[in-house]
Request: fold
Amino acid sequence: MSDAYGFYTDTTVCIGCKACQVACHQWNELPAELEQQPTEHSPGQTRPMTGNSYDNTGSFSDVNWRHVKFIEKSEIPAMGTTAASVSHSPQDPNRDNLQWLMMSDVCKHCVNAPCLEVCPTGAIIRTEFDSVYIQEPVCNGCRNCVGACPFGVIHMGGTANEGEGTAKKCTLCYDRMQHGLTPACAQACPTESIQFGKITDLKVRAEQRVKDLHDLGFPQAQLYGADTKILGGLNSFYLLMDQPEVYGLPSNPKLPSRAVIPSTFLSMGSALLVALGGLFAFRKKRMEEFAADPTAKER
Ligand code: SF4
Ligand code: SF4
Reply:
């Protein structure tokens, strides 16, 4: 395999403009997500506002392969103390301690990809760029990958609606990469929050940025997915300014196969306990019968 390519997303310079989302829709000819699909006689109906800050996408979907998250948080004194506690729904009317975290989220193109591991048809493949790609004509619509992805990336979709058809997600613009082009979202990002390139080069750049932020007095700056701890490494990794959970990212996602041995032992343990319980109950019953009628032993 040639060099691995992917994204380094520096969330500190994301301005929430959603140019990446728009570029993804445009390049991949993804339709707008509507509450009601258009018919011959109606133009459809737009989605209602989510009410969650400036996030009107809400989540990934069959047509939203990128999702810009807006996380508002404030540090407020805990009840009866002066100690600050963090609230993720801002309650500080003076806006003194507010923080607005923005992050453009996408498929992580995991090195050990749970979706690829569970795909029974071989529809999900690893490309020559080390990205994870769904061959839609081979997808049988089983949805195994939907449940396996720990980041909620994959959604079913088709010509009819979300939930039907085949599995959909970011392709890392495989078609553009095959022609030496940068993925559309990274190309459109005006602040270079989304940087595309060889993973080895991106890691060097990201580590330097973390060091600079620490030197500038931001000790909370940290990389997510740049090392091998998360699913062998993420080919779309992030620089975060808080714990992963604040951004809705799991700290320690697991491959489905890693759960097989523990759950097998758990099932065997449960079966043993049930068998022992039955044995003790039977023995107790026989002893009670014997106490009531000593001749019962011989029967
Ligand atoms: S983020 Fe989800 S969909 Fe993307 S490669 Fe990893 S498991 Fe698959
Ligand atoms: S790499 Fe291409 S498909 Fe993936 S989010 Fe960016 S524009 Fe969309």
About this structure: Residues 260-292 form the longest helix (33 residues).
